[in-house]
Amino acid sequence: PYSESVMEEYMSDNQVEHFHNILLKWKEKLMSEVDTTVVHLKTDAEAYADPLDRAAQEEGFNLELRTRDRERKLIKKIEEALDWINEGVYGYCEDCGAEIGVRRLEARPTAAKCIDCKTYSEIREKQMGND
């Protein structure tokens, strides 16, 4: 976790660099897992004679592909966060412009909203879904 100095300004160069590194390492890890999956699907695709073995293999592949799809969406969010860093708006709420907070960004480096706006957004989503 990032250790803030007592008088450190929010989103100082050190903080931005810290989160930039976190996002890059996270993206690299996810990209390597994608590569591993491609190799795994190519090398382990055996034509089992037994229908149960074939079904189990296909289910395993489907689970792996769903996981990679979620990770693909996460990579997109990471790339958006890296863009925000380049634009100088990382760490600030996209709705109200308030500071998101270092602790929240440590927990969720791709956060785009402060906790108040995110909570309000979730409440609205629940209300819209219940109508």
Structure description:
The protein has 131 residues and is mainly alpha-helical. It is built from 4 helices and no strands. The protein has helices at 13-43, 51-87, 102-107, 115-130. The protein is elongated and about 65 Å long. It starts with 12 loop residues before the first helix and ends with a helix.
Which key terms come to mind for this protein?
mainly alpha
SSE diagram, text form:
Layout lengths: L12 H31 L7 H37 L14 H6 L7 H16 L1
Helix pairs in contact: 1-2
Tell me the helix content: 55-70%
Overall geometric form: elongated
Mean pLDDT across all residues, rounded? Answer: 90
What is the helix/strand order? HHHH
The total strand number stands at: 0
- Beta content comes to under 5%
Summarize the main sheet.
none
Summarize the structure.
By secondary structure, the chain is mostly helical.
